[in-house]
Amino acid sequence: MGESKDIEMMTAREGEVDEIALQEAIEDERVKTQQRQTGGTLERYINLVSAINFSFLLQCSWEAAAATFQFSLSNGGPASIVYGSIFAGFGTTLVATSLAEMSSMDPTVGAQYRWSATFAPKWNRFFGLMQGWITVFAWICSCTSNPALVSNIIVGMVTFNNPDYVPERWHVTLIMWAIMIIPFLGNFWLRKLLNPLEAVGAICHVVFFIVSIITLIVLAQRSTAEYVFHTLTHDVSGWSNPTVAWGLGLLTVTYPLTGFDGVLHMSDEVKKARVRVPRSMITSVVLNAVMQFAYMITVLFTIGDVDVVSADPLPIIQVYYQATGSKPATNLFVSMLAIIIFVSFFNVFASVSRLAWAFSRDNGLPFSSFFAKVNPTLKMPLNALILIGCCLAILALINIGSSTAFNAFISLPALGLYISYFFPILFLFIRRISRNHPVPIPWGPFRLGKWGPVVNLLAMAYIIFIVIWMPFPGALPVDGVNMNYAGPIIGAVILGALIDWVVSGRKRFQVPVARHRPDF
């Protein structure tokens, strides 16, 4: 009772240090000493502005929606985009708020798998290991989606400017590999430059947004309000049921809002993480949800000839071209999308490498002792970063064997991330309503109070609804070409995690213990 109360009241204002904070300082130093002995420790260098910029830019919602809204044009149409954007904005904010409360208790790089291990009513080690595998895999796939989006934009622009060009699938793989090189090296040698790069990226994220909207409003032909608000497309992809079509169209507006937990996996490098990480997550989701909704409403009102737009592999190109009537102007606006998504790739790369490092530190991965090391000179998990780079290079090969790989790169990370969000919220909700648990919940500075159970319950309902639609194929009849492999792949990851648990994980994996530390 006394410990819980002290934890809740500590650090009420900056510079305040009480008895609990001093105890935490001792514990933090002990942990740092232990980490130096086992491979090093990370350096705190990310301030509040950088933390917010990190999440804000990482999501790049309106750019990702612009590059993927072909999914909604064939399923759901404008009704799915408009009302789905509102639905996704509120739902994702509930999810982010639930995770923000946990990040205030224990702002740790491992995040979801540590919280599952902490709050699970039983079998803590089992749920922690399973959650870790799902979260790490989901983030590796999420990291792959950035070069997939940029390469898709590049190929679309080349085709737009050179109609005789016939893209081969191996071309896309080579482009993806090329796109990975600079962010990899940037995280390797230029870690301290990530802060100013994030600031520039965040400015471009806002400026390009404003310029794009103004250009489309001033130059483009207007659609009717009837088309924007009352058109539900359910006769193009083969899915004739309007509800199913609307649900499938949610991919365009839900996928860009995932990944807000990226800053969580940088927690060991964020100053005053117990306060700043929750603020960063909630702020980035709200801002990106508003920007995505405003941009997509603008696109629908200025879409021009819908048939021409729908026929293009990258529809946003035709939206800008019909509005401006100029190929150079269209190239400029579409390049803006690629630039911001590319810059956000630096953040995604950094986040997933820290997550893999943390999971290895808790012996979650095979060969954990190797991947858990922190380079003492670079102050970063070099081996984990190389592991992620190799995984991305291998995953890019999928595009050579499947023409639907781009769909997998988009739907798979969204499905995996939503599953990773669900279980910590579920376990906290169970702990919250339990009256028999001997240990009180160690609340942090950010607490939902009496609204907590309601927010958690609504967040879980939203996740379940979204996860239902993610594995559905985008078109009928289903064959090997248009099959959505997201569900089977996630199933394979869960099966692999179960095998790992049986073979060695139950002996190898260590249940993480929350560290309530001061944030100086």
Model description:
This protein is mostly helical and 520 residues long. It has a single domain, classed as Amino acid/polyamine transporter I, CATH 1.20.1740.10. Helices cover 70% and strands 0% of the residues. The chain contains 23 helices and no strands. It has helices spanning 2-9, 19-38, 48-59, 61-68, 70-74, 77-105, 112-119, 124-161, 169-189, 194-219, 225-230, 242-248, 251-254, 273-301, 306-311, 315-324, 327-361, 368-371, 382-395, 398-401, 405-433, 452-469, 486-508. It is globular and about 65 Å long. One of its GO terms (molecular function) is transmembrane transporter activity. This is Amino acid transporter.
CATH top level?
Mainly Alpha
Structural class: mainly alpha
Q: What does the average pLDDT come to?
A: 84
Q: Find the CATH superfamily.
A: Amino acid/polyamine transporter I
Count of separate structural domains = 1
CATH architecture call = Up-down Bundle
Radius of gyration: 23 Å
Low-pLDDT stretches are: 1-24, 515-520
Which structural traits does this protein have?
520 residues, mainly alpha, Amino acid/polyamine transporter I, disordered C terminus, AA/rel_permease1, transmembrane, Amino acid transporter, transport
